[in-house]
Amino acid sequence: MTAVIETFELVKDFSRRRAVDNLSITVRQGDIYGFLGPNGSGKSTTMRMVLGLITPTAGRVSLFGKDTSAHLTSALARTGALIEEPAFYNHLSGRRNLKLYQAYGGTKNTWKIDEMLKLVGLSDRANDRVGTYSHGMRKRLAIAAALVDSPELVLLDEPSTGLDPQGMKEVRDLIIRLSEELGVTVFLSSHLLAEVEQVATRVGILKEGRLLYEGKPGGLLPKAKTSKFHLKVDNTDRAIAAISLANLTAKKVERQEMLEIDIDPERIGEINRILVEYEIGVMGITEVAHTLEDIFLSLTAEDK
């Protein structure tokens, strides 16, 4: 499949700190690419280099198969971005703000504004002043602003930050619609792993500017060296003490008479025997699927 974004051994140094360290990633046409990592891991810096907002210390970027050092302007004409919260005019309507964004970009497809307002669910508030919008509505308007010029690629940097659960769901649903209905390739950065897990077709995991993993979310599963188990027991405190004798750590599942333990599956029989020996009732042992967050934490711990 055609590569829309490629970085080649990308490096960015700020004074004595290396923010991005020999980063090579590929975002393919049609991807919803989840770019994951803790705050300060280099996600936003990478996006700014992709867009030509800052210059790499070393390495290079390709957009739509062309090196941005020579073809940045033509590549950006096919690209939309939400990197920072846009500075909307609060005294103007949502529609008027989008018209200004179009004017800045040199286009006048006013019909596109109504289409994008409908897409982000703001048609009924399009003529209201932006100053009356909620935080979630402003986020959706910002995404509409990134889309008014019909981009083939859109970069969204932490679009769910600061939103309540309903606002996060609205942004998730919108990202899926961008891909499925408009065919837009989405490059999405976030530290909210559970959010990305629900939409991404491919992911890249970053720590301290270095790539730990790139591929399909399902491809991470073999990298998990342990499995998570829930143990339903009749006395959680005594069970934790007994399990500690095997140099393992179990923790209580909140508001339940149940323990959670990460362990090599081959040792779960050993844990059961220990609990029985200490006359602790075991009512059930259930393997729980690893989430992307579990695996991310495992990967970053191994990288220390």
Helix content: 25-40%
**CATH class value of the largest domain:** Alpha Beta
Number of strands: 15
- Domains, number: 2
CATH superfamily of the largest domain: P-loop containing nucleotide triphosphate hydrolases
Helix-and-strand structural type? alpha/beta
Classify the fold: give the CATH topology of the largest domain: Rossmann fold
Element string (H = helix, E = strand): EEEEHEEHEHHHEHEHEEEHEEHEH
- List segments where confidence is low: pLDDT < 50 over at least 5 consecutive residues: none
Overall 3D geometry? Answer: elongated
* Strand line-up across the major sheet: 7-8-9-4-10-11
Sheet-strand content, in percent, reads 25-35%
Average of the residue pLDDT scores: 88
Give the biggest beta sheet: 6 strands, mixed
Number of helices: 10
Give the terminus-to-terminus CA distance.
34 Å
Give Rg in angstroms: 23 Å
Name of the CATH architecture of the largest domain: 3-Layer(aba) Sandwich
